[in-house]
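Q:
My hope is that you can spare some time for a protein that puzzles me. I hope you can help me see how the letters and the tokens relate. Thank you; the sequence and its tokens follow:
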Amino acid sequence: MININWLKKLNNEQFEKVYLFFISIFSFYKGITFEPNSIYQICLVVYTLFLILKMMKQNSVQEWVFIGCVSGVLAINYLFSKDASLITSFVIILGVKNIDILKLLKILLFTKLGAFITVILLSIVNVFPNIAVKTGRGGEFVQRFTLGYNHPNTLHNYFALVVILFIVVYYSKLKIWSYIVLLALNEFIYIFSVARTGKYIVIFLIVLAIAVKFSQIKKFFLTIVPYIQLVLTLFVLLINQFLFKTPIWTFIDKILTGRLFFAKLVANDNFSLLGRNLSFFYEKYYGKFHHDNSYATSIAIMGILLFFVYILFMSWIIKKSMYKLPIQIWILYFTNSLILFTEDYLRQPFTNITLFIMMFCYYEYISGHKKEFLYE
């Protein structure tokens, strides 16, 4: 019989510190590279062992049943998709029980900002390549730079995530001049990235952060927040289904630099109930396609059944939690959801921070903190 008396002595504050320590490591690592290495894998294994202990101490039977059901579904999906990102993401966000969400977001801000600066500095000294990319715009080619990232769009999207987190953490302290500085930095990054979607998302974010200070705008905003991911999903599916190649479709697809077209290839034209491996699409289209839209790509990988269970669960849980968290959390949720429309980030919790919010809301406001623990 394993002696678990030492486990009983650990308190929530100690569990929180260890969890945030692991999150800081993962967040910084994911901010500077996309490929896992042996060190990352070891950290993930150690974290998983810690997570099991944390859940044994804190989680109720109801929560264990929920987690078991989700884990079973994700395991089935893995058999079809061969994509482990869903499982890894679920394991990472499972630890948010009894974690201060604003403290977590502050950790994400500092680690992402540190990683962002590190990548740019390493590109300046030629450790990371500063790749020059030529893109056709308005009948001519423009020169774009990655500053150490794998693509100019990635550069600006990571900057956008840093700005989102900065506004969330310091929302009550920000003045007009703070937003002006952020807009100036946005223009500076745009000089290198020439990434229109990233630039406009930051501008929209700042306008939104100021606008929701007005009560009527805030009230309207909160009514639409829970459904933003569902709306964006239906938009990309329905416009490809009913307006494909029409003038309005062509206009929007041009603005989105082909994202609607490639979304149609992976979602509308290849529906599956239980998901597929992305290699299926590479082979079918000879590798000549991009999966830049999180919603379309996630439908392809997760399958239409699992994806819509997820997206409806997300909408429901955010609706139930809407008035229990400060407005800046929902600013983050809304704008992060827009970034998911432009890049395939949905299954990555350190770029899709809405996953942390979803799991936090489940623990705090849905499971109900029932005092029915596995180990008292």
